[in-house]
Every structure is written in C-alpha cells, then in structure tokens.
Amino acid sequence: MTPLIDVRDAAEGASSGTRSAAVSWTDAEVVARIEHLEESMRATAFEQLQLIAEAEHRGLFGQHGARSMPAWLHGLLNIDYRDAKARVTVAREVEARTTSHGEPITADLPATAAAMAEGAIGLEHANVIVSAIKKLPVHARCAMLAEIDSMLAGWARQMSPRELAIIAERLRYLLDQDGAHRDEAAQHEARELHYATARDGMMVIKARLGRETGAKFAALVEPLAAPRSEIADASRPEAGREKDIRTAGQRNADAFAALLDLAADSDAMPRAGGQRPHLAITIDFDDLKRGLDRTGGKGMPGSLDATDQPITAENVRRIACDCEVLPMVLDGDGLPLDVGRTKRTAPVHIRAALLQRDGVCAFPGCDRPPGTPDAHHIVSWVDGGSTELSNMVMLCGHHHRTVHSQRWEITVRDGLPAFIPPPAVDLARTPRPGGRARPVEHRALIEQWLPRPRGPVDALAS
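^ thats the sequence. predicted structure below, dont judge the formating
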C-alpha cells in the first residue's frame, strides 16, 4: 500500500504545483502546455499498446486465469470491456515486432503507428482506422493496404475521430459497393419501431431505422429542433435575447410533435374511413367552456380516443383553436344520439391570409422554423369569437402553449397583432408588436473529403 500512497501524493503535489505555476503563465504558454500534455498522453498510450501486444505474445492473460486478453485487461485496468478490446485490437496492428534474430518487423499499419508514436493522433483515431480497414474487402486490403493506411492516418492528423469515421465509411462504400449494398439490405431487414403508453400516460417510442430512413428522420427533425431565441423585452432592445431553456431531448420531442402536425395536415396522408388522419378528443362542451374559467371553475378532462388517456380541458381548449369541431349529442351512457356538421374554424383562405400577415408565428422574436402553425382565436371560438383576420393570429406550437398557459393577451392594431404580457413577465404589461417569423434555415451537410482513388478494379489491374 505504501508505494501506492507515495504515487498518489506525488501526483497530487505535481497537480498542485502546476496549478500554482500556471497562474503566472501567459495565455500562449497555457495553450502550449495543454497541447504538449495531449501529445505526451498519446505517446504514452502508444507505449502501453506496445506492452499490451507483448503481454499477449507471452500469454499473460492465461497465466492470470483470464479467458482472453481483453477480459484480462478489463480487470487489470478497471476499464470498460469494449475499451479493453479496442486497445488489444489496435495494439496488434501497430505493434513494432522483431524476428528471433532481432531484425525489426514493420507494423501492419506503419503510418498509423508512426502518427501515434508522435502523439499526432490518439487511440480513438487509431481504432477508427483499424475498424475501417477490417471492413474493407480482401482484395482492397491486399492491393491497397499501405495506401489506405497512409491516407487515413494523414486525415486523422487533421480530423476528429467522428469526422474520420465518416470519411472512412465513405471510402468503404467506394471500394466495396457490393458489401455496402448488403449492409443496407441487412439494416432494412433489422428495422423496427415499437410504441406503448406508459403508466403515467406518456407515449414511449423505441426504434431502429435503416440509414436512409434515419437520414430522412434527421433531416426533418433537425431544423424543427433548432434552439429558439426570444426577445427578452421588446421595449428594451438592449436587454438582448433569451436563450432557449429547453433541453436537447425536449427540443427533439417538440420537433417530433411538429412533424406529426405536418403529416396530419398533408393531403398525401392515406385516409381511413374517408377521413384524413386526425386527433380525436371527446369532451363535454360545457367542460370545454370552463377549461379556462378565470373564476376558478374547472372543467372535467377530455379523452384522447387513440390512447384512452385523459387530457385537461385547458389543453383541449388550446387544441380547439384551430381544428374541426364535430358537435355530437350523447346519451347518459356516452353513446352518440345525434351528430352535427363539421365546422373548420380557420378555412384555407383565412389561414393563407394569416400566414401572409404573421408568418409561421407572430409572437415577438420567435424564430421558429417552418412547420404547421396554429390559427389562434384571440377571443376563443368557444366563447363566440369570430373566425376572421381581426380575431385570429398565427402561433407556433410553443407560443400557442405560452399564450394559453401564461395568459398573454393579444390585440390587432392597424392590421398587425400586438402581444400584452402577463404581470409575471412584465408588471407594466407593455404591448409588444408581433411580426413575421424568421425561419431557421436547415443546412445540408456536404462531405468535403471524399477521395478520388483509382478504384479497386484499376488497382487490381495494375
């Protein structure tokens, strides 16, 4: 135990000394030291890989009762088994060996080994390179191993491991198009999506999507999940903009909800029983009217027909701002006796005019990306509000909830909406002018590093 304590004390002393010394360093010296330490750690990691390879040759894992080299390393270093396996795999490829006569044998991946020895790349880079080469077809490895090793090691010096993995996969698709096609077919067969309602009423979704479907999902969700920034106080421009306080998971969930709105609003969706896909909610009309009763009256909750889960009258009232309402007379057991005509509260021409006037969302400072907005009634349709431009405003899903939950008031002045915040937001309740939203542009990722090799056929022919 004593040597261990001595080592820890020495490490703590060095750490304390570094912190105290760094106070007097210049910014350039701090940066240089950080870079130097990274290079040193990488070089030390490479030295460890050499020893790991030697330990495997000696069969030390068997002497210690382990079933394999990764299993032994996992216990010896107290690291994750996957990490241990990666170290053993990389060690085999970058090991500098000698013959029985003492003659040096070049590593299987000399360019990668040299870059690691210099501290120019780390274990993560090397693991990406080794994994990528192992996935290549035999003919490519035999004919182009040195060239591919040199190419990937060179890229690794300039790229992060993630970027390197992207370009390595593109290289594999170029050199093994048949194998890549088989991989995609296997992914398609392995696709799955499950959903269920949890005990708390929330929907739980689990999915594995093929790369094509996954790319479609990401391309549609990412722009809708972009962080929003909102004007803190329109009356004081110097106050700046507030950051989006939603977590990444919440932003993705909101984006998925917006995606469902887009799909439900599309005429391309298949119809069931002659009806477009819709969210059906059953609620007593009187309860709906009491949903936001400022006197304290509470309405009984409604029911989401698709999942049989309850939903508050307040949220039903928000949804009812821009939906088709089907009046239905029920008997004492809740069975329908009479059905009225469906009435759309925001006809096509009204929505078009609102979009022209308000954009996707008229809330001050909203930069919500394009989606399916809600046509909100300033005076609720349930309370007799008319369906016309002077009584309606376009809101994104987030600000539609905000207006209802925080009790924002909205007026239309000179043909443009103005938003009056609640006292909790602004004691003076200074009206804030609304305006057209600024859509967030979705940038497509462009690969800039796609190589132009001779190709496997030309390589073999030469």
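The radius of gyration is 32 Å.
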